[in-house]
Records
---
Amino acid sequence: MKENRTKTKGRIALFLLCLLVFGTFFACASGAGEPAGTEEVSAVTEAATGEETEAETEPPEAEEPARPVSVLFIGNSHTYFNDMPAIFGRIAKADGRKISVKSVTKGGWTLEKHADKSDECGAEVDRLLRNERFDYVVLQENSDVFMSSKYYPERYKAAVRSLAARIRENGAVPVLYSTWGNRLSENKMDTGKTTTLAKRNTMIARELDAPVAYAGFAFMKVYADPANTVNLHYTDDHHPSPAGSYLAAMTIYAAVFPDADVRTISYRGTIPEKTAAALKNAAYETMKDPSAYFG
């Protein structure tokens, strides 16, 4: 019995020893092949890596294209002759700007009519200012009516103030387009009328803190050159010729974008290169220092 108990104890001891040895082996084997927590960590790493890869390879969001600069022209035949707003647009594009140009014009119309919402053109001006966004609105007055004491200053100023207030409400800047007097003879024009128009535009512009495009002064500068052979007036000696509209557009462009050097702009349409260079220089010099012409 004693011997049997001893054998039994021995067998139990041997069995326990085997369990201890083999149990430790299996645990180390599984741990060696797959350390504790490796599967879970690997899954998290893959998820994180996948997110990083997606973020790195996903194309960047496309930036919204810059909105074109939007310009509205309001005036009469001194604006629409030779489609001057379109010339302005081509100048801007040649200068590398995205531009959108619209116009409301009618022969003989005054700014008073354009300010009147019951007028056909005034209603269109009102619709555009309420429904579309502009950056600049160019205002051109009837040059003959502008000289009338029945119209200037009360009716003119009331019209410009009304339009300017609505233009500002739209978020745009009003720009006054100062035109010119008639051509009198070769290389001679009515400088007195041209200067008066400029002074009257300047007075209201100072009140409204608005720029003035002195196209009339640019005309004067060209005609003052004894070597000039360019006729800036149409055959009626009143409206602009194609060269006159080109010069007006360049002058307005210099007023709207004072950072631009119009002398370097390549667009010249059908204007001969030498003539275009002279007209661009006249626009540049005039807008650089218009005060020189007031005397």
---
Amino acid sequence: MQTITTIGLDIAKSVFQVHGTDAAGQVVIRRQLKRRFVLSFFERLPPCLVGIEACASSHYWSRELQMLGHTVRLMPPAYVKPYVKRQKNDATDAEAICEAVTRPSMRFVPTKTVEQQSCLMLHRARHLFIRQQTAVINSIRAYLAGFGIIAPVGRRGVEQLLEVVANTADRRLPEVARACLAALGGQLRALKAQILEFDRRIIDWHRSNATSKRLDAIPGVGPALAKALVASIVDPKAFRSARDFSAWVGLVPKQNSSGGKDRLGSISKQGDRYLRSLFTAGALAVIRYAKIHGTGIGRGLRDCWRGDRPRSPPSRSPTSSPGWPGR
């Protein structure tokens, strides 16, 4: 058998597809592997270049294959898709991966460590619980509105509604509806407690990481965003400039340029949606800080960076000083 130098590995839940070529680009192997045979198959191979599409389990397989001595390159699926020929299936996907990994202009995804994956899982789980909390609150408000019971917008309003549900002397609610709403109230309290626990874990991890604390010094960057950045970015040097990083997050305008004329639209909204939402919240906090203290955005950024705090807000400001916007 000719020596295999490059392998395209199409990973899945149970059945994996392997497409291997030699140094001349000739196909040497094309076969399917059950999950339990994948590591034993690569153990018998000499060290080679392995291409994998970046997905949920790709970082695990990348770490495992690297421990066997192979060079693993993860690629965004969108960059592999142009190399897929007709009739998309596992075999053509593996062939496309094998070809894409050898392209000199291909962009690769660094392999995340177990700690980074755990940190990102903490953020994703917290974000999921926040969405569930919002859904439960909206359900409670909608159900009670059906009986003519409403409350002001905000946290205090929800607490008022739950007090109505807990008051058995209030005859506006039938018993069946009260039981359903009480169950929703219990679910809401459990979600809030779990979100607070995740917040504590984020703060603890942030305080123990020097890079995260340095990022926290940037105006508009708080512990949550700093921790998410450290967990998401394996090698900051992979970005050639700040604009490359902005494009990766999805903060650059969408282009439709032609004929030497630049046509820029709205934000492309491609990239990491979670990081983009945290950056947006931090920017709005800096803007709010500048408005409350009656300064321009540039001066507000400078004051936040230096840690300056006006002793009293301007007379036209309706509230007192909120302190540092990102903390």
---
Amino acid sequence: MLSYQHGFHAGNQADVHKHTLLLGILSLIAKKARPITYIESHAGRGLYDLAGEQAQKTGEWRAGVGELYEQRGLATPLARYRDVVARWNRGEAILQYPGSPCVAGGALRKRDRLVLFEQHKAEFEALNTAMTNHYRHAEAIRGDGYDGMLDVFSEHDPRHRLIAMIDPSYELKEDFERAPAFAQRLVSLVPDALVMVWYPVLTTGETLAAQTGSFHSQILFQQHREGHRMIGSGMVIFGDTTENRRPLKVLDRALQAHFTA
């Protein structure tokens, strides 16, 4: 089993990018009356302790959500994201960071569903606890996220709009090809689904086959420390984004401005 644990990286600059986009996209889709089923292939813990050993060891969150938290005059998408983080904390200190399951859980409605896959034993147990404590409409499942997501798409309730996030650790280089190919497969099964694929931008040059997506957002940032390979973050959406093309562009422009300021 792969050993990746996101607690070392929670709240970093890539998370600010990814979770601001996720919040914006789900908020757009949730304006429609149709119920949503949101699925994640690699959900992680769901909620992260920024005062804990993992987060304190790397300190990556300080250049991400920590720096943003202190800013004023944020663009609306980023201000909404900060508000989400603030709801998980008291006062000015950031002690907890909501991962994508918690961001999604807060953006969705009671009639919507969250189906969250995580294979790592300790990460799954923490995820299951976080979801049980906070979101009754969420189901955490321990297992392979690719297989599990395929099952959900193959057996889905057609009354629900499917929105999915594929977010592997990319410890395996094959995920740079596997993730977008799998996203295309899912959209071929359910043509009105939207499938988001997050990927890291690395100094080693691996990249995602993003040209087949309908929307692409990529930001760059400085290395957190010497030898750290990640220098950016990308998100590609597969599926028809025509109805939300304009607000997605506004969302991306706000993120580009934030990370180039």
